[in-house]
Write a structure and sequence with these properties.
The chain is mostly helical. The chain has a single domain, classed as Alpha Horseshoe (Serine Threonine Protein Phosphatase 5, Tetratricopeptide repeat). The chain is 63% helix and 0% strand. It is built from twelve helices and no strands. α9 runs antiparallel to α10 and α10 packs parallel to α12.
Amino acid sequence: MRYSPPLIAAALLVASPALALDLRARDNQATARARESAGGVAGYAQMARLDVKEPDGRHNRDTKDQAKSDLYQIIVYYNAAIKRDPKDDDAYFHRGIAKFFAGALVAARADIGQANKLDPKYPYYALWIDIVDKRGNVASGLSQAIAQVDMTKWPAPVIRLFLGQTTPAAVLASAEDPDPKTKQGQVCEANFYSAELALQQSAKQEAARLFRLAASGCPREFVEGHAANSELAALDVSE
């Protein structure tokens, strides 16, 4: 997925120091406004997350409360970014994911839907709209949402998976690539989105297995790895 500065994995997310530096360099003014609005977000870039070495969600209440506060700070940050540039589809997307993990499904759907309107060719917006819709027991509109998506290239196999046209094994096979970095990213996404499908099908153990693979194998800058950590934290499954 497209590079994502302060990534949003709700219950438990961390932004690396490198990402934090990029975020501050990218938008110092918006960050300053967010600090004023939220009463200070000095710890914005040091959000708690589920460590990949501890993928079973064992965190105390204080950590979860802090994670909720961190989500609020993320939303505040992107409020400022959107106020500055109402056509920033990436900002709508990240604010929407933060709202999704905070449990505000209707608001999350509105934000990611707006991102999709601003850039209907970007396939990951359609995928996340489908994830949010399914979580809210809303009928899928994925086949309509991908009208302008190029289905000749990645992540087309993932989209076909969500449409019921292929299998997780076939998607994972499609993720192969001679370039190691490309392969890592595509395998990451194959595991994460296959896990989301398993979760939708109430296959919690399989979802947890795949989320663990995504959490440990995704490139640090990919939203899917951080999102996998959050999904693992929310799942009540044994090792």
